[in-house]
Design a protein that fits this description.
The protein is an alpha/beta fold. The protein contains six helices and ten strands, in the order H-H-E-E-H-E-H-E-H-E-E-H-E-E-E-E.
C-alpha cells in the first residue's frame, strides 16, 4: 500500500517556497493559502499536483493557475472586506474562494457549465461562509457586466485591453489583466480615475496565460476606451 499523500505538509511547503519567496506584501495571502485546501478544487486524479508550481488541467480547455501566480494576482488587487469583485473565468473556483476569504463579495462567470457546477459544489463544501456566486456566461454574447465593481480579475489573457472591463470599474476600482501574445505576456493593473473616464495602467510582471475562453467575436462599434496612462514597471 502506497503511503497517504500529506496535503497539509505540501500546503505549508507551497507557502514557504512558492509564496514567501515572491514579492508578496499582503500577509493575509499567506494565511489564506495556508488554510484553504487547494486539493479540494483540483480534479481527483490530479490532487497530488495541487500544490506543485504548475498549471493543473481541469478539462474543457481550462486549467488551475500556479500558486505563485495567484498569490501575485491577489497581492496586486488586494480586495478589502465588503468590496465587490467580478472574476471572469471561474475555472476550479480556487481563486474565487481566496477572494471571498479576503472578505470580498465575488461574482464569478464561467463559460463551461460543467466547471460551474463543480465550482459551486466545492465552494459550498469548503468555504460556505464566503459570499461567492458562480454563473454560466459566454463572452461571445456577453454585453458586459450590468453592475459596477471595485475589482475585476480576468482568468485568461487578452491580446490588448478591453474597454468594457474598464467601464465595469467604479472610480478607484482595479482591473487585473494579462495582455499580449505568447510566449511572453505582461500582467497589468489598471486603476480607474476617481474623476472622469481616465485610468492608470501599471506593468506588474511578465508571465504567460492561456487566452480568456469565450473571447468576444467582432461586433458593432465598441464604446470608446477609457484613456490610460502608462506608469511603468513596479
Amino acid at each position: 500500500m502506497s503511503p497517504r499523500f500529506d496535503f497539509a505538509a505540501a500546503r505549508r511547503q507551497m507557502v514557504e517556497q512558492q509564496l514567501r519567496t515572491q514579492a508578496i506584501h499582503d500577509p493575509r495571502i499567506f494565511e489564506i493559502f495556508a488554510r484553504l485546501p487547494r486539493e479540494e478544487f483540483t480534479p481527483a486524479a490530479l490532487r497530488t499536483l495541487a500544490y506543485a508550481e504548475l498549471e493543473v488541467p481541469l478539462g474543457h480547455g481550462a486549467s488551475m493557475d500556479r500558486p505563485s501566480y495567484l498569490g501575485a494576482v491577489l497581492d496586486a488587487v488586494r480586495p478589502a472586506a465588503g468590496e465587490r469583485v467580478l472574476e471572469v473565468g471561474t475555472g476550479s473556483g480556487y481563486l474565487s474562494a481566496c477572494l471571498g476569504a479576503l472578505g470580498a463579495t465575488v461574482h464569478s462567470v464561467e463559460i463551461e457549465p460543467t466547471l460551474v457546477a463543480r465550482a459551486r459544489r466545492v465552494l459550498a463544501a469548503v468555504v460556505p461562509e464566503t459570499s461567492v456566486t458562480v454563473e454560466t456566461d459566454d463572452l461571445h454574447t456577453w454585453g458586459g457586466p450590468g453592475e459596477i465593481y471595485d475589482v475585476v480579475v480576468l482568468g485568461g489573457s487578452l491580446p490588448k485591453a478591453d474597454p468594457s472591463f474598464l467601464h465595469a470599474l467604479r472610480p478607484g476600482g482595479r482591473l487585473l489583466a494579462v495582455l499580449g501574445h505568447p510566449p511572453l505576456m505582461t500582467a497589468r493593473l489598471f486603476v480607474r480615475a476617481r474623476a472622469g473616464e481616465g485610468a492608470s495602467a501599471r506593468a506588474l510582471f511578465e508571465t504567460s496565460l492561456p487566452p480568456l475562453r469565450g473571447l468576444p467575436s467582432p461586433r458593432g462599434r465598441a464604446p470608446s476606451p477609457a484613456r490610460t496612462t502608462e506608469l511603468g514597471l513596479s
